[in-house]
From TrEMBL:
Name recorded for this polypeptide: Uncharacterized protein
Annotated keywords: Membrane, Transmembrane, Transmembrane helix
Lineage, uppermost ranks: Archaea, Methanobacteriati, Methanobacteriota, Stenosarchaea group, Halobacteria
Segments traversing the membrane: 33-54, 75-98, 110-136, 148-165, 171-188
Presence of keyword Transmembrane helix: yes
Domain of life, per lineage: Archaea
Organism, scientific name: Halonotius roseus
C-alpha cells in the first residue's frame, strides 16, 4: 500500500490535521530555511572578515556596482564564463594526461581549481551581501558612507529573506555575479590605467 495513500486515508476527514501535500510543502519550506540560515552564517562570517580587513576596498566595489550596474553585471557574467571554460579545459587536460599514463595525482589539477572556485563564490556572495547593505543604507547616511557592520547585517538579512522565496535563488545569483563583476571591472580599470601610464612614460 502506498504510504502517502495510507496517510491520506488516516487524515481524511479529521479537522485540523494537515494532509500529505501540506506536510510536504511545510517540509520543503523548513529545508529552505535551514539551508539559507546555514549558508548565510558562513557568508556572514566571511563578510565580517571583509569588513575587518578590506573595508575601504569593499566600499570601492560597492560604489563601482552602484554607478555602473550594467557594466559590472557584464564583467561578472564574462568572468564566470571564463572561469567555467578554464575549469573545463583543465579537466580535459587532466583526462588526457591520465589516458597517456600520467599518475593518479594528476587529478589534483581538477581538485585545486574546484576548491578555489568554491571559496571564491563564498567570498563573492559575502561581498555581494555587503554591497546590498551599503546601497540600501547609503541614502540614510549623511556622508554616503554607511557603517559597514550595519550594511553587513542588513544585506545578509535581505538576501537571506529573498532566498526563502521560490525565486530567491535568482536574487542570490544576481548579487554574486554583480559582486564578481564589480571586483573584476575595478581591477581591469586599475590595470588599464597603469598600462596607459607606463606606455606614456616609455614614449616620452
Amino acid at each position: 500500500m502506498d504510504p502517502a495513500g495510507g496517510l491520506t486515508l488516516l487524515t481524511a476527514g479529521i479537522p485540523g490535521v494537515p494532509g500529505p501535500a501540506e506536510l510536504v510543502a511545510v517540509g520543503d519550506l523548513v529545508v529552505r530555511v535551514i539551508v539559507a540560515i546555514s549558508y548565510l552564517s558562513v557568508t556572514l562570517f566571511v563578510g565580517a572578515m571583509l569588513v575587518s580587513n578590506a573595508g575601504e576596498r569593499t566600499r570601492a566595489v560597492g560604489e563601482e556596482i552602484r554607478q555602473h550596474p550594467v557594466e559590472s553585471g557584464g564583467f561578472g557574467v564574462g568572468t564566470v564564463v571564463a572561469c567555467v571554460a578554464g575549469y573545463l579545459l583543465v579537466g580535459v587536460t587532466a583526462a588526457g594526461l591520465a589516458e597517456l599514463g600520467a599518475p593518479a595525482q594528476v587529478g589534483i589539477l581538477v581538485l585545486i581549481p574546484l576548491v578555489v572556485g568554491v571559496i571564491g563564490l563564498v567570498i563573492a556572495t559575502a561581498l555581494g551581501q555587503l554591497v546590498v547593505g551599503i546601497i540600501l543604507l547609503r541614502r540614510f547616511s549623511e556622508d554616503g558612507r554607511p557603517n559597514l557592520w550595519g550594511a553587513l547585517i542588513v544585506g545578509t538579512v535581505v538576501v537571506g529573506m529573498a532566498a526563502i522565496l521560490p525565486v530567491g535563488n535568482l536574487v542570490g545569483v544576481a548579487v554574486t555575479v554583480l559582486a564578481i563583476g564589480g571586483v573584476t571591472r575595478r581591477l581591469w580599470r586599475a590595470n588599464t590605467d597603469r598600462l596607459s601610464t607606463l606606455r606614456d612614460r616609455l614614449l616620452e
